[in-house]
Design brief:
With about 220 residues, the protein is α/β, with parallel strands linked by helices. About 35% of the residues lie in helices and about 30% in strands. The chain has 2 domains: about 120 residues, D-Maltodextrin-Binding Protein, domain 2; about 100 residues, 3-Layer(aba) Sandwich (D-Maltodextrin-Binding Protein, domain 2), CATH 3.40.190. It comes from Klebsiella pneumoniae.
């Protein structure tokens, strides 16, 4: 509680300083790795070109930690999958991220234009460790369609999952945002399709600073809503 009160005061003080100008300031942002690596750099370049005096600290952490850091006031804004309502956070949608299949280059499935889950699950399945939000979304979506996710290999990072797939160990499904990081073949996935809204989150009891709002406005220009 004391840490959150101190963080709240720091955020209020920073917001007061920035309310007069965007020429100087700082923002702390937490973003899940798929967004931090594939969208944020280009958006930050555009932001810094316009607001060169605003310094930005980026914490690239897993989805669950993004939500935790925002709730505890350790960062002003986070980029994550839409949280459940009981987190008491304000959510601004930025895009819908649809999962894609990834398979080894040498697999016969790599030649297909689209894959069903039935086809993908003929390969040993590789995914993130629990309690990853990605793992949970996959398990819940498959359970609704009467399937069970049998995991052969698991890792803590999606890049590692991609490397395992590329080496021929099996297949996986990952958010489309991170497909440029995958060393394997990415293919649209259906039956069932799995998608989730990605957006900005911040504490509901505090308004965004002018700098954070400016960054959020910049991000909106880099992703279709």
């Amino acid at each position: 509680m004391a840490r959150q009160l101190l963080a709240d005061w720091d955020n209020v003080e920073e917001a007061m300083r920035q309310s007069f100008t965007l020429q100087r300031g700082k923002i702390s942002v937490a973003a899940m790795p798929s967004f931090a690596a594939n969208v944020l750099p280009e958006a930050l370049k555009a932001f810094r070109d316009r607001y060169a005096g605003v310094n930005v600290t980026v914490h690239d952490v897993i989805n669950e930690q993004v939500i935790e850091m925002v709730r505890e006031g350790r960062v002003e804004m986070g980029i994550a999958f839409e949280p459940s309502p009981n987190h008491n956070l304000l959510f601004t949608p930025l895009a819908v991220d649809r999962f894609v299949a990834i398979v080894p280059q040498q697999s016969p499935l790599a030649k297909k234009k689209q894959l069903s889950w039935q086809e993908l699950l003929t390969l040993d399945f590789i995914t993130l460790q629990r309690p990853s939000a990605v793992r949970l979304m996959l398990e819940e979506a498959l359970a609704r369609s009467g399937r069970q996710l049998d995991v052969a290999l698991e890792s803590h990072q999606l890049v590692t999952v991609g490397r395992m797939v590329a080496s021929g160990l099996g297949g996986s499904a990952v958010p489309a945002l991170c497909k440029t990081q995958m060393a394997a073949v990415c293919i649209p996935l259906s039956d069932p399709p799995i998608e989730k809204c990605v957006g900005a989150i911040h504490a509901g009891h505090l308004p965004l600073s002018k700098a954070a709002q400016a960054l959020l406005d910049t991000l909106k220009g880099f992703l279709p809503t």
